[in-house]
Amino acid sequence: MHLEWSDEQRAVMETTRAFVHRELVPHEDEVERTGRLDPGLVKELRRRAIKAGLYAANMPDDVGGAGLDTLTWMLMERELGHTGYALQMLAVARPSRILLACEGSQRADYLLPTVAGERVECLAMTEPEAGSDLRGMRTRAVRDGTDWVITGTKHFISHAEEADYVILFAATGEERTGRAEITAFLVDTDAAGLTVRPGYRSVSHRGYPNSVLAFDGCRVPGSAVLGEVGRGFDVANTWLGTTRLQVAATCLGRSRRALDLAVRYAAGRRQFGRTIGRNQGVSFKLADMTVALESASWLTWRAAWLADRREADAEIAMAKLHASEALAMIADEAIQIHGGMGLMDELVLERIWRDARVERIWDGTSEIQRHIVSRALLRAHGG
Predict the structure, then answer these.
(1) Distance of CA 334 to CAs 95, 250, 278, 306, Å?
(2) Backbone angles phi, psi at 144, to 5 degrees
(3) Per mean pLDDT, which range of 77-86, 239-248, 319-328 is the poorest?
(4) Residue 42 pLDDT > 80
(5) Which residues, including other chains, have CB under 8 Å from residue 100's CB and lie 6 or more apart?
(6) β-pair type (140-144, 147-158)
(7) What integer pLDDT is reported at residue 302 of this predicted model?
(8) DSSP 155-181
(9) Distance between CA atoms of 308 and 326, rounded to whole angstroms?
(10) What is the pLDDT of residue 2?
């Protein structure tokens, strides 16, 4: 693995960084104050993101995306991670790569218009009684002739209120082990029997809403099945790895922002006749923060590079685990260096600190990532 950024990678980073600072950062305070992002603003920012070539950049070029390799894509994600999720995810969407499983009319109805920014998807896996244990999901889809009838509840579904359709995972039977057999479906949000309700108020990622989806005898045609019946996890696995890498790369962007603020403050703030950065109590914190960020970066870049070459579940898990936990430490220490002012609304640090908390939970908790890493270690020795 040779890490020297190519001209293309540098261009992607520079273009993304400029877009973030020019188009997104100016709206941060308003999103934090109101807890919402105006739909009209989202539409305009989305138009500008498409013009800049950033929209759906994670998708292959043969479906209208930028065709970036995973490492270049993650470099882009780090730059987007400088700002909050509401702005970077709603305005500069990266559609779920699960959609690459679309076939036949699904491509024209769902995949292509989503890549073009004409339709928006949301992903529904998590349930009140099934978070990390996905095979414990209780939402069921039952055959009725050539149709499927869906009943159950999903929650913590990001930006479902603005979505045109749902990528839904539901139980369609049982395996011999007694665990649920899972199938993926494409369900339009205006389908009869589907209700989208406001979700919960979260301390993290203001303006990036979550919803509750209630399916009450929601009928969909057989053509709504994405992939094969009972093979939903095969479809999901094309998504889980890259989204965990997205979380890692986003954490890098946010960590870098917090560290930069801490370094500038330590270099300029004077106490007892000298800058506080000359005190080991502060300078050692900066050193530890830098080591944490650099090590998390290398884990993330290595996992992204490997992801295009072979199965890299353990490496991706390590990246997600370390980057999210490094962000928690860096955000906390940056606030400590700033003292009481670090917790005030006037600084971005308290936002980064709040937002950091969810990164160790969604897209696989830290405990799940540790399980993946340890399982890979033991498996290599027959354990």
Answers:
(1) 33, 18, 16, 32
(2) -140, 95
(3) 239-248
(4) yes
(5) 59, 60, 63, 111, 238
(6) antiparallel
(7) 97
(8) EEEETGGG-SEEEEEEEEEE-TTSPEE
(9) 25
(10) 67
